[in-house]
Amino acid sequence: MQEDREHTNLASRRNFIAGMGALGASALFGGIAPAALAKSTAPLKIGSLNTYSKIYAALGNSNLNGMNLYFEQIGNTIAGRKIEIIREDDELNPQVGLQKLKKLVESDSCDIITGIQGSNIAMAAVQYMRESQAFVLCSGAGITNLSYTGLPYLFRCSTSSYTTLSTMGEWLYGNRAKEVVVSASDFAGGRNAVIEFKSGFVRRGGKISKEIYPPLGNSDFSPYLADIRNTNAKASFSFYAGSDAVRFVKQYGEYGLSKSCLLTGSGFMLDGDTLPAQGRMAIGAINALHYADTLDNAANRKFVADYQARFKELPNVYAEYGYVAARTMHMAIEAVGGDTSDKNKLRAAMRAVRFDAPRGPFRFTPETQSPTHNVYIREVAEIDGRITNKVIYTVPEVPEPAKLPI
Fold first, then answer.
1. What is the C-alpha separation between 368 and 265, in angstroms, rounded?
2. Strand order of the sheet with strand 77-78?
3. E runs forming strands in 41-184
4. For the chain: N or C, fewer Cβ within 10 A?
5. pLDDT grade, residue 188 (50/70/90)?
6. Using CA atoms, how far apart are residues 66 and 184, in angstroms rounded to an integer?
7. CB–CB of 181/210 below 8 Å?
8. The Leucine-binding protein domain covers which part of the protein (predicted)?
């Protein structure tokens, strides 16, 4: 499942002070030039570009909550610089997202941008990120192509759908079904998720009986559920998120499909932001993700307890994204002494980050700058009166392949 990875050497570039005048000024400030001194104590501007409205509103707000929780725990300061978060809503619209990204980079002069939940937004922003050389830590979009853009200052601390869904496809073929019908919201993230699942499932010999793509923001799934039933498949695989996931899973159960066609899918369809509304209709569904709030490790126990105390609810995967993003930025920016002006040094520091996150071991895959982390096969169950996910199988530390797999 893992391809051989080509190892590359990171070429570092060093800035130097030209001229005796600059050298003299530097000496007066203990070896730090006045501009660098001012930069190191200026507020650390972090642009939080995410979807804070429409069907993904809960996702963006959870992401920001997780980030704020971590920053509050470190006194909202990194390397002597007070943290200033500038929040912008992309409205799940690529054009709006691009405008807001330009604002954060050009008008707000943010040191680093994080967020970007929608895969359609992220891909629409690639060319601008290339032109502007903006430093971006994506804590949302899972589309695989984002990892293969060749952008040196683009990192991702959330997930790549390839690692999760190809793993899911292989496991499902080996353990539950040899033929499935697939469905997903008709947008970049949904279609990409199907491709990733197929890369594992079909490669093992699995058969796809039909592919179904309802529009994003759909309210009535009955005609699509009829299509699923008519295939006579024993299992389905789906990708939906936000309110689409709630409606799809509830209507799937109400339609009676769960009795004849096992519901499986991306973990984003069956997680903390959707399960309370999906309720018992979700029980028994199989899904894959890199996080579950029931994980029994020290980092997750602390994260769950702290998040509950702060926000009076359990964290979901999007909150964990924000929390991991905050810690990643903390570690990397501390490593460069708070100086974010040298992007190559910050990049090297970011690539060196590794720690035990709530999700388990976390580090960046060097070739793609997306995570290497565990993938968990989960089953929705009722535990202590709560509808949640229990982990039934763990695939440890799955990296992305060095080259685009599709």
1. 25
2. 77-78, 81-89, 44-50, 112-115, 136-138, 154-156
3. 44-50, 77-78, 81-89, 112-115, 136-138, 154-156, 179-184
4. C
5. confident
6. 27
7. yes
8. 43-381
Q: Which CA distances in Å does 134 have to 41, 151, 331, 335?
A: 21, 10, 19, 19
Q: What does the CA dihedral 323, 329, 331, 334 come to, rounded to 10 degrees?
A: -140
DSSP assignment, residue 402?
Answer: S
Tokens 């359990």 found at: 314
φ, ψ dihedrals at 288, nearest 5°: -130, 140
Cβ–Cβ < 8 Å for 130, 149: yes
Name the DSSP class of 105: I
373-405 per-position pLDDT tens digit: 999 999 999 999 999 999 999 999 999 998 876
pTM: 0.83
Structure tokens at 402: 């060095």
Q: What is the pLDDT of residues 26-57, one digit of tens each?
A: 333 333 344 444 456 899 999 999 999 987 88
Report the distance separating Cα 87 and Cα 52, nearest Å: 9
pLDDT surpasses 50 at 22: no
**Length of the chain as a residue count:** 406
Judge whether residue 21 has pLDDT over 50. Answer: no
Three-state DSSP class for 387? strand
